Structure to design on (381 residues):
């Protein structure tokens, strides 16, 4: 369904949310690497025609990241956002916005991505997004679940739609999706979370713990499945009424052929249909934010995810890099952005609900309770 927003609104909202959650524009990153990348075909193992629509969109972005000469790693993960709409060009009929976190195995990447997508969609529609969540697990889990579904269709074939039963003989996951789509309530479809491997169970529990710790509302929905082999672990949908929808999941196997090394990847694809297809005007250049948030430890990272929306709504110009664990790498990020102020939170500050404000020009530090953080930052912003 189309919405009464403009393509410029979409890009501005993506840019703003990206800044606060640490997602950089792929276009800007590629421009900074101009001349360092090399265009190359898709890897031989990637067949776009065999991928589902969301996986095709993700593969296109992965190729752009690789061609730009960008190289994510576990030490320096890459958080990016991208859109097929661009300033100076007519808006496409269907705008696609993607958010990706590459190089973070920890469940925090899923949680940050989900919160960024929810914030983006909520900002566009001025409504509360609805998050539905499930997990398809790893390869071991998918194989186990496939056997369970095969048995389900054999046992209940006489009372299930014939086309679904016929499809189950060649692709049991596609057959399950068809059964879900026809809303056949005759039988209870098995849930993939009942068959998770130990590693997948721990990862999914980690995602849910982060969502609960950051007061992110969600609904567990066993009927959300990822059929394609490109997806694994957490899968989710975010919807706003019938106006906007997003799909997201881990996709480490899909990203592996594009980059050296083996690292985790998670992403989300938001599809937007707009009536306005006029040329998108140039966006104003944004100055570097005055604050960079540095956090040490899980408690601080969880707290930072809650704080960021408060600061965003107060329009405090801030960015951070939640996916980077190393304090040294976070300080390198600070040097790159070169803000006048740094917010620092460790475990002690998180438990005391406070933050350290460091003025970089003179190295003075001030302890600020979170309850008064917005007012204090406004005074120096």
């Amino acid at each position: 369904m189309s919405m009464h927003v403009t393509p410029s609104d979409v890009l501005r909202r993506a840019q703003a949310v990206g800044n606060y959650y640490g997602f950089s524009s792929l276009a800007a990153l590629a421009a900074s690497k101009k001349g360092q990348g090399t265009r190359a075909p898709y890897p031989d193992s990637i067949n776009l025609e065999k991928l589902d629509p969301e996986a095709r969109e993700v593969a296109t972005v992965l190729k752009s990241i690789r061609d730009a000469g960008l190289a994510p790693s576990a030490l320096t993960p890459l958080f990016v956002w991208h859109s097929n709409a661009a300033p100076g060009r007519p808006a496409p009929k269907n705008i696609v916005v993607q958010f990706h976190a590459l190089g973070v195995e920890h469940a925090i990447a899923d949680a940050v991505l989900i919160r960024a997508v929810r914030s983006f969609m909520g900002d566009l529609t001025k409504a509360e997004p609805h998050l539905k969540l499930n997990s398809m697990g790893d390869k071991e889990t998918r194989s186990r679940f496939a056997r369970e579904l095969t048995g389900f269709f054999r046992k209940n074939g006489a009372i299930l739609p014939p086309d679904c039963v016929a499809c189950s003989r060649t692709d049991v996951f596609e057959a399950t999706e068809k059964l879900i789509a026809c809303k056949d309530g005759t039988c209870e479809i098995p849930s993939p979370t009942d068959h998770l491997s130990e590693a997948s169970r721990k990862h999914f529990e980690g995602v849910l713990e982060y969502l609960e710790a950051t007061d992110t509302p969600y609904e567990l929905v066993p009927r959300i499945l990822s059929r394609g082999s490109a997806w694994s672990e957490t899968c989710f949908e975010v919807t706003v009424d019938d106006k906007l929808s997003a799909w997201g999941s881990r996709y480490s196997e899909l990203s592996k052929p594009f980059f050296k090394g083996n690292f985790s990847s998670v992403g989300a694809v938001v599809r937007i249909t707009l009536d306005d297809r006029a040329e998108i005007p140039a966006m104003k250049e944004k100055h570097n934010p005055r604050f960079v948030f540095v956090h040490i430890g899980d408690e601080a990272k969880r707290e930072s995810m809650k704080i960021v929306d408060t600061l965003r709504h107060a329009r405090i110009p801030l960015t951070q890099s939640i996916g980077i664990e190393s304090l040294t790498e976070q300080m390198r990020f600070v040097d790159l952005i070169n803000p006048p102020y740094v917010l620092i939170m460790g475990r002690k500050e998180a438990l005391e609900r406070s933050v350290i404000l460091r003025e970089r020009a003179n190295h003075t530090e001030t302890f600020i309770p979170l309850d008064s953080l917005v007012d204090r930052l406004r005074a120096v912003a």
Notes: The chain is about 40% helix and 20% strand.
